[in-house]
Specification:
Number of domains of chain A: 2
Strand content of chain C: 25-35%
Largest sheet of chain C: 6 strands, mixed
Largest sheet of chain A: 4 strands, mixed
CATH class of the largest domain in chain C: Alpha Beta
Oligomer: heterotrimer
Number of strands of chain A: 5
Order of helices and strands of chain A: HHEHEHEHEHHHEHHHHHHHHHH
Strand content of chain A: 5-15%
Structural class of chain A: alpha/beta
CATH superfamily of the largest domain in chain C: P-loop containing nucleotide triphosphate hydrolases
Order of helices and strands of chain C: EEEHEEEHHHEHEHEEHEHEEHEH
């Protein structure tokens, strides 16, 4: 057992010494969590509209109306606005030119031009603009109507003010039964990204690290450790342990760092660490399999990164499983990532207990056992090759 | 010249025999595109669906019926199902209707009397943009109705006759606003989500692909063949030139394959071939020039490939390889200077029908990047990998 | 010294394929080569004999035009050599000490590639490649990637590439280091054959036996300078035909060394732990008194060896150091 621990210790030391690992293991995952959170975690709004045209009463009125509808309003000159619309940086451009402003000030009608963006997401903003235009200055419409009925202007204004206090405005209550938003309700801005990146990166690093296994075989280090009074089983166990320690170490680091830096809530720490531990076992086994069947380090890194990314994509590492179609969600569960994702979701969002995540842990453990056994067997066979 | 061709040919043969090149250049990006499309394909499909609305509205309620009548006119495909309150709710929850609408009995009279009146809208399971649009229409309608009620109350307070009040209400409810809306057009320079995915992956992995060519210089040193090449009766600079050219060839071919195959697989049209070709060439020049900095900074070939990978991931992700990155102001400008982002932007322009003249800005950005990178590579002290 | 470059024969104005004049090369504070001069005539095998770090490889690098000399000149077949010179490099074949072959390419592809760079083409190239494969005994393994080759096979290919284009001067930089005895013998035989065919050879080594066996003339190099130069016999005569006596033992070897050093018959003493290497005049006559002196000074002898004069003794005499580390 001591020999296995010694081998594992060496693996960990080699891992930490590799400067490239410092970036990929420690800095990069956090970078990604941050980027994901800031891009997608922000609160939504009803759309983005860019207003152009000289500063005028009309422009101000339009801006205020839009903002009251919870639209995000910005200002730019004409060419900049066109570029923003073309590139999708704003949903809709709205031109309030001098002619319209003057016409409006004079009490006449004015025309504004809407430049819609091509993405379908701009539809909502387009509708907001239509509504804003139609309802702009309802006050004026009320005044005009009262005046037409024979009430003088000043009296009409006063009467409207009084009436406004008396009338209860009709309300629209929106209830959201969308399971997606219900699911994500209460999640912090970075929480979702943190758990999926955790799974993505520990697995990826583990797979890419299989190249050290090949390197060791190639450089004869493997043969040397076999020459020591160490049984093949112990050597293999040491390798597996080494891989696991690295994966667990990285995962633990990500959990700690995201908690400290982004206030990510990992729920019950013990359970989260348990999920990580079992997932790391799967990663370790996969790394051993990869490191044993390939002989070329470059190919191992390539295959490792490729496989790691693809598995993560399928398993919910890049987009939440909840937006997958039913079939794809089932397919996703051939990957360990999906099971880890489910387990974390249970613990993070719903405060699940050990019993709740037992099924996921069970599947992960089974995957780990299969991967480790296969990896150990392949590694043993490959050691004969290295001698 | 003949010697250059001989060198180039042998470089390419070796690169292709090294499987990691093909893995990184073509296989992994295509696999990733495939995985992400499989998984998020539906969510990325931009087309708007029918807005199915299940409405429960009292048949004799004038306002309610008006509202129901207004909905199909809004330029979105709206399908109304009239039913009762419980059913409307149920349909929304089941996802059969994107929106459930419950207008209570006595809505109109309550509104007219200035009493509180509430419409309940239930956003269904899987509701998207479509329901957002409908909700904004409803809110606009209610604002109108409220204005009408206030005006009527004011009129009543002022002592207008009931007959006049009716007309007043009508006038406010349907009165034209001072503003009219015209719709203009901006050019479409934006790739749809699938196109952005294909272009982004192509850009990210391009950075890996070109590195293989120039890093081949380090390989020559490791094989010992650099010395032999220097003893050959030819200009020693040709060795470097041939590496640059092989990066170029690999980069252009790989990117062309990725854009063509990716475009075909995901039904994306990137536009006319000539400007696309120019974009690819510019992107390859920009990314190859980066590799020269890497070679100077690295002490060993292993370090070189790590630094290259880091640069590739950072530029690739910041350029939008996995999800669109946008920002305004200074951040936006910095993001724009990234060659991967410039290439994607250029492809957006060509996919919207742009030609050579239209892609001038992104091409200049990429070539400018290359010039700056080469300058930096000149100035950076050599840390010894190439000594 | 000025030589007119025009109208020179293959061997240049003075009949030499290589002329090295006052070569100097520094690396920072270290002067690796400090004024080396020698010539090689057509068809001659010249050996550069010296220990590791003597400056052999640096000298070779300058001769082959891999690096520039800080001072001095190299001319190959009458043409000035330098890193950017193309013409003279056609006359040289280089076999570097570190293997210089592409692992992912086959032996045939390696040969063809370098052959092309040397200016060969078409049927002539193909025929010559086949010839060299035959010569190096690699015809059966011409197709697979060279990374699967054994160490000896790689070395043979390394040499084959060097002589593919029938160079006037073949440079071999320590070609037998780390090679098994059988392959080493094959290499030495090939070199003998080559010089038999009229190729000039520059052969660097720190193995005395190789230098003695192969070379027409030998230059003894140490610490960046050429200590002596000549045929084997000339060199041995240089040190006055001294013999080598080696005393192995324990005890006070330092005292023994001191005592022996003062003996008139003894030319030089090199003392290491438990080992005394002496160059003496007429060893059979002097050995008895030497043994007595040694044991009398407190050394306990376990072995005494007398050897005929060889290059090892020349080296020891000239530099006070052993050839081998």
């Amino acid at each position: 057992m001591r020999a296995a621990l010694a081998i594992a210790g060496v693996e960990l030391r080699r891992f930490v010494k590799d400067k490239g690992n410092v970036f990929f293991t420690f800095i990069f995952p956090l970078l990604l969590v941050f980027v994901l959170g800031s891009q997608f975690g922000g609160s939504g709004n009803a759309g983005r509209v860019t207003l152009t045209g000289p500063s005028s009463d009309l422009r101000t009125a339009v801006a205020e109306q839009l903002e009251s509808q919870e639209v995000s309003v910005s200002f730019a000159d004409h060419d900049a606005m066109l570029e923003q619309v073309a590139r999708g940086r704003t949903d809709v451009g709205l031109v309030v030119d001098q002619e319209a402003a003057t016409s409006y000030d004079d009490g006449g009608t004015a025309q504004v031009e809407m430049i819609p963006g091509s993405a379908t997401t701009s539809m909502a903003a387009q509708e907001q603009v239509r509504v804003a235009v139609t309802n702009l200055d309802l006050h004026q419409v009320q005044l005009t109507a009262l005046e037409d009925a024979g009430i003088p202007g000043s009296e009409a204004a006063q009467a409207l003010d009084d009436a406004a206090g008396q009338v209860a405005e009709p309300t629209l209550e929106v209830v959201n039964v969308d399971s997606l938003s219900q699911e994500f309700q209460g999640l912090g801005q970075f929480d979702l990204g943190a758990s999926s990146q955790l799974l993505l990166f520990t697995f990826l690093t583990s797979l890419a690290g299989s190249s050290t296994l090949i390197n060791a075989r190639r450089q004869g280090v493997m043969a040397r450790s076999l020459a020591a009074p160490v049984s093949t089983t112990q050597a293999v166990l040491g390798q597996a342990l080494g891989r696991w320690v690295i994966a667990f170490f990285q995962g633990g680091y990500i959990m700690l760092a995201t908690w400290l830096l982004f206030s990510v809530d990992w729920g019950n720490i013990g359970l989260s660490l348990l999920i990580l531990a079992v997932f790391a076992l799967v990663a370790a086994g996969a790394a051993m399999v990869l490191g044993s069947i390939l002989d070329n380090e470059g190919a191992a890194v390539g295959a490792g990164v490729g496989l790691g990314l693809v598995l993560a994509a399928i398993g919910g590492g890049m987009a939440p499983l909840e937006i997958f179609s039913d079939t794809m969600r089932r397919v996703a569960h051939i990957t360990p990532h999906a099971w880890g994702y489910d387990a974390f979701a249970e613990v993070q969002r719903r405060g699940g207990t050990l019993v709740d995540i037992l099924p996921q842990l069970g599947v992960l453990a089974a995957m780990a056992a299969a991967a480790l056994l296969l990896g150990a067997w392949l590694l043993r066979r490959s050691m004969a090759r290295s001698l | 010249m003949r010697n250059l061709f001989t060198l180039l040919r042998t470089d390419l043969v070796q690169r292709l025999r090294d499987k990691s090149v093909i893995i990184f250049a073509v296989i992994v990006p295509l696999a990733l595109m495939g995985a992400m499309n499989l998984v998020m394909g539906d969510a990325m499909d931009g087309d708007l669906e029918t807005a199915t609305v299940a409405v429960s509205a009292p048949a004799d309620d004038q306002l309610a019926q008006t509202l129901v009548g207004v909905l199909p006119e809004i330029g979105l495909d709206v399908e109304i199902t009239e039913t009762d309150a419980d059913d409307a709710r149920a349909r929304a929850e089941a996802g059969d209707a994107k929106l459930g609408l419950v207008i209570p009995e006595g809505f109109s009279s309550a509104l007219m009397a200035g009493q509180p009146a509430e419409i309940t809208a239930i956003r269904g399971d899987g509701a998207g943009i479509e329901s957002t649009v409908v909700l904004s229409v409803i809110q606009g309608f209610l604002d109108r109705a409220a204005a009408s009620a206030v005006a009527t109350t004011a009129g009543a307070n002022l002592g207008l006759a009931p007959a006049q009040l009716g007309g007043l209400a009508q006038q406010v409810a349907t009165g034209e606003s001072a503003l009219t809306l015209a719709t203009g057009e901006a050019s479409n320079e934006q790739l749809d989500p699938k196109g952005a995915l294909v272009a982004g992956q192509a850009g990210l992995f391009l950075m890996f692909t070109v590195s293989f060519g120039v890093l081949g210089l380090l390989a020559e040193r490791e094989f010992g063949t650099l010395a032999r090449l220097r003893s050959m009766p030819m200009n020693p600079q040709l060795v470097v030139v041939s590496k640059v050219l092989s990066s170029f060839v690999l980069g252009v071919v790989a990117t062309a394959i990725l854009l063509t195959v990716g475009g075909r697989l995901f039904d994306v049209d990137f536009g006319s071939p000539l400007p696309i070709g120019v974009l690819i060439v510019s992107a390859v020049i920009a990314t190859t020039s980066l590799t020269f900095i890497v070679i100077k900074l690295a002490k060993t070939s292993e370090q070189a490939s790590i630094i290259q990978t880091i640069l590739a991931m950072v530029l690739g992700i910041a350029g939008g390889a996995f999800f669109p990155m946008s920002g305004g102001g200074v951040l936006g400008t910095i993001l724009d200077l990234n060659p991967v982002a410039a290439m994607i932007r250029g492809l957006g322009i060509t996919s919207g029908g742009g030609g050579l003249a239209d892609i001038l800005t992104p091409v200049l950005i990429m070539l400018g990047f290359a010039a700056v990178a080469m300058l930096i590579a000149r100035v950076v002290p050599d840390r010894g990998a190439m000594a | 010294m000025t030589q007119t470059a025009a109208a020179e024969s293959v061997t240049g104005h003075d009949g030499n394929v290589l002329r090295v004049d006052g070569l100097v090369r520094r690396f920072g504070d270290l002067t690796a080569v400090d004024g080396v001069s020698f010539t090689i005539a057509q068809g001659e095998t010249y050996g550069l004999l010296g220990p590791n770090g003597a400056g052999k490889t640096t000298t070779i690098s300058m001769i082959a035009g891999l690096i520039a000399a800080d001072e001095g000149t190299v001319s190959v077949v009458g043409e000035a050599m330098g890193p950017t010179k193309i013409g003279p490099k056609r006359h040289l074949g280089l076999v570097p000490q570190d293997l210089a072959i592409y692992p992912d390419l086959s032996a045939r592809e390696n040969l063809t590639f370098f052959g092309r760079l040397q200016g060969m083409a078409g049927a002539e190239l193909k025929a010559r490649v086949a010839e060299v494969l035959e010569l190096t005994g690699l015809t059966d393994r011409a197709k697979g990637p060279t990374k699967d080759f054994s160490g000896g096979m790689k070395r043979r290919l390394n040499i084959g590439i060097g002589l593919l284009h029938r160079p006037t001067l073949l440079i071999l930089d320590e070609p037998t280091v780390g090679v098994d005895p059988q392959s080493r013998n094959q290499i030495l035989e090939s070199v003998e054959n080559l010089s038999g065919e009229g190729m000039a050879v520059l052969y660097t080594t720190h193995y005395m036996e190789e230098a003695e066996r192969l070379c027409d003339r030998i230059g003894i190099i140490d610490s960046g300078t050429l200590q002596a130069e000549g045929t084997r016999d000339e060199l041995i005569r240089l040190i006055g035909g001294v013999d080598n006596i080696q005393l192995t033992g324990s005890g006070d070897t330092a005292a023994a060394a001191e005592a022996i050093r003062s003996m008139p018959a003894v030319a030089q003493v090199n003392a290491e732990r438990g080992l005394l290497q002496l160059t003496v005049h007429d060893a059979p006559a002097a050995v008895a008194s030497i043994v007595t002196t040694a044991t009398g000074s407190g050394m306990e002898l376990s072995d005494v060896q007398i050897s005929r004069p060889n290059l090892e003794s020349v080296f020891l005499h000239l530099t006070g150091k052993a050839l081998r580390d």
